Amino acid sequence: MSKKLINSPDRAVDESLHGLVSVHPGLRLLSGHRVVLRADIEDLIKTGKVTLLSGGGSGHEPAHAGFVGKGMLSCAVAGAVFASPPTDSILAALKAIFSPAGVLMIVKNYTGDRLNFGIAAERAKSELGLDVRMIIVGEDTALPSTGKSAGRRGLCGTILVHKIAGAMAEKGCSLDEVAATAQEVADSIGTMSVSLSPCSVPGHKPSFQLGENEMELGLGIHGEAGVERTNLQSANEVVARLLDHLTSTESGYQYFNPPNGTNVGLVVNNLGGTSNLELSLIAGSAIDYLTSKLCYNVTRAYMGSLMTSLEMAGVSLTLIRIKDHWTEYLDYPTTAPGWPNQPLGPDGSQERNSNNATIIGSGSKRETELKSTIGPPVTTVGQKMRDCVVSICKSLTAAEEELDDLDRGSGDGDCGSTLKAGAKALTECIDKIPWDEPSEALLSVSDAIERSMGGTSGAIYTLLLTSGSRVIGKGECLSKWVESLMEGIRAVKQYGGADVGDRTMLDSLVPAAKALQRSITDSSPSLDALKAAVEVQCTE
């Protein structure tokens, strides 16, 4: 059972809806029901426009209440966590939003939802004479059924139906037009998901378990297990697998596997527990794969927590084959708080182009030189310096887990991985560094570390090496190397604001430098001096 910041499992949904409408003044609750309405619903009905209703179990926030607003849903009905809402609440919602132009209900393909929303629709028709239509969204491509939509679960692609249908209704289209296009959109989308962890309903244990090195493909959004379990793969591999499946004829969606240059839309959805860092990484990977590998034209892309599964760590990718006139509805403004509004481009448009991710003016002169040139042959002294750095890089890489574990006791647990990143960058450019020119070599090593090692440690090593490079000269004797080290330490103290005793790397670095100085004064052999520096303990 995972920890959750709630007061009571029984009150969690009601208190969550209360918080939602408290934050967003454009939303209201329908008294006595878990129904969220547009605050201007009465004015909307007076305009004679089609109104839209959707909903389902809670636990998928911001869906569905987060998509209530001008240009999207008129109202959303919430059930208990992962449970279909009761018929009486759906019927109450239909009464509250009934418009002379009619009501369209957008329902995800789950048995409970189909039954309860269907019953409410029939009662509204027979008892009240309301014109109510219902379309079913079932775009889950993980399940093998073809032809009929029975079996295919409704997932994050549902929000695209909300958006296009909502914009059409806002613009005054008829119920027939809105319903027909909504169904066409529902038939033009596909979704595939992957999970790294399960979720748990408040007050209950997770419905399945995943090992440390396992992931689950083809999840639903109710905590159920997927269709395949496999070993954890890299983000690029996962993205390729999901998109290859989505665009294959095996998915049962003939809209996919379209010709090169087809306009498609992409939705990268956080299932709940995925970090923003991972989500953006996956979005970039997916767009790159769609454009370069599959040769599609990604004209719209959306990213965020849109149709979640509580705290499940994972993502879903949704594709839609976009017809020309649908972009108008996708771009139509909405006040729904959950919709990921796209930022406008410099020309005021929302069109993506293939150069959006191009880095402008990147790379320092030295970085460019390191990437494009091979260093000259090195002498024996330079070779020894190179071999020493190679040995250090191997040791740091091998000690990654040990250093991370030590860092967890006092920091954020990334010391080993940070040093490994620097070691990897150095290894990749090792033969491009001018080892026979110690000053230039230190600057080159500094540049590689600055590019690859983030955080405070990367900055400190860069400062140490850059400052030390100014005084090392040709590095013709050990005393020049010690002078370089002391200059680097001086700069670290000045800019870092720390000193010996502050529990930083200076607690080891300063005693080591002083041990070197003493050894040189005593005319000790170089290796003995280095040994003394390594073994010295901080007693000052």
From TrEMBL:
Catalyzes both the phosphorylation of dihydroxyacetone and of glyceraldehyde, and the splitting of ribonucleoside diphosphate-X compounds among which FAD is the best substrate. Represses IFIH1-mediated cellular antiviral response. InterPro entries: DhaK_dom, DhaL_dom, DhaL_dom_sf, Dihydroxyacetone_Kinase. GO terms for cellular component: cytosol. Residues 335-377 are annotated as: Disordered. It catalyses: FAD = riboflavin cyclic-4',5'-phosphate + AMP + H(+); dihydroxyacetone + ATP = dihydroxyacetone phosphate + ADP + H(+); D-glyceraldehyde + ATP = D-glyceraldehyde 3-phosphate + ADP + H(+). Residues 351-361 have a biased composition (Polar residues). Keywords: ATP-binding, Cobalt, Kinase, Nucleotide-binding, Transferase. One of its GO terms (biological process) is glycerol catabolic process. This is Triokinase/FMN cyclase. Residues 8-339 form the DhaK domain. Coiled coil: none annotated. Belongs to the dihydroxyacetone kinase (DAK) family. It comes from Amphimedon queenslandica. GO terms for molecular function: ATP binding; FAD-AMP lyase (cyclizing) activity; glycerone kinase activity; triokinase activity. It holds the Pfam family Dak2.
